[in-house]
Amino acid sequence: MTIKEFALLAGVSVSTVSKIMNGKDASISARTREHVLKLAKEYNYVPYASATAPTTRTLTMGVTMTIGEYAVTGPLARYLNLHPDVNVCLRFGNTDRLLEALRAGEMDLALSEGYIRSEEFDTELFRRERYIPVCAAGHALPAGKQKLKELLGERLILREKGSGSRKILERNLAARNLKISDFIHYAEVENIHTMVSLLVRDCGIAFLYEAAVEQEIRQGLLKEIRLEDFSMDHEFLFLWNKGSVFSSELKKLCEEWIQLDKDASGGR
């Protein structure tokens, strides 16, 4: 039973169920708390992380677009094969949407590349990934390394507002006294595959995680733009509500996924 199904059964909001099950229920009446806990016991409802009996469990996990499409398939496949008793609901969304879902108790944990407020969420490092400027292999660029400002005459292809990868780009531009509007033109796209397809068709440049374009670079369809003043990598983080009574179980789950990812990628 998902948290939404249990909330509907109890006649309360998902947020109320989440607060009670996570021990953050000081603002909830004793009557409502008793009602929810009584039903939880009667229907044997437990969030994923607290389910220890050998019954079918459901893990609801949110991932950002980049991670979901390019970084999670290997460890997810291994996890499913190792845990045939677990149902997995994988939800996609940009970083802002995932954080909203976590706050509302709609998922157990999330995997994001955005900037996370440590006072609100507990985190565990999944991996680090290079963040690089790319363009079509045949795109005309001056020989040798360039500076970031020299790219302002290009059309910038980027994600929508609320995306973690866009926030990273905005912060890096701001550190150099630049902003997205300094580029002569831009194209805002909510789908990574579409962004990559536009790059292959030489419609502009983009800043993306290497994992999203490494295949196209190997195939000679795209190339990394070498810049003198831009070099970075960024964290992919597991996160869940800070202070959750299930933090220890979620941390163990994250550690398992980290090892599965190393196994899937040959120990990278």
Question: How are the SSEs placed, and which strands pair?
Answer:
Blueprint lengths: L2 H8 L3 H8 L8 H13 L14 E7 L1 H6 L2 H10 L3 E7 L2 H9 L5 E4 L8 E16 L18 E4 L5 H11 L10 E4 L3 H9 L5 E4 H9 L3 E3 L7 E10 L5 H18 L4
Parallel strand pairs: 1-2, 1-3, 5-6
Antiparallel strand pairs: 3-9, 4-7, 4-8, 4-9
Helix content: 25-40%
**Estimated share of beta-strand residues:** 15-25%
- Indicate the low-confidence ranges by residue numbers: none
Shape descriptor: elongated
Number of helices: 10
Average predicted local confidence, pLDDT: 88
Radius of gyration: 21 Å
Q: Largest sheet, described in full?
A: 7 strands, mixed
Written as H for each helix and E for each strand, in order along the chain, the element string is HHHEHHEHEEEHEHEHEEH
N/C terminus separation: 37 Å
Task: Provide the structure class.
Answer: alpha/beta
- How many DSSP E strands? 9
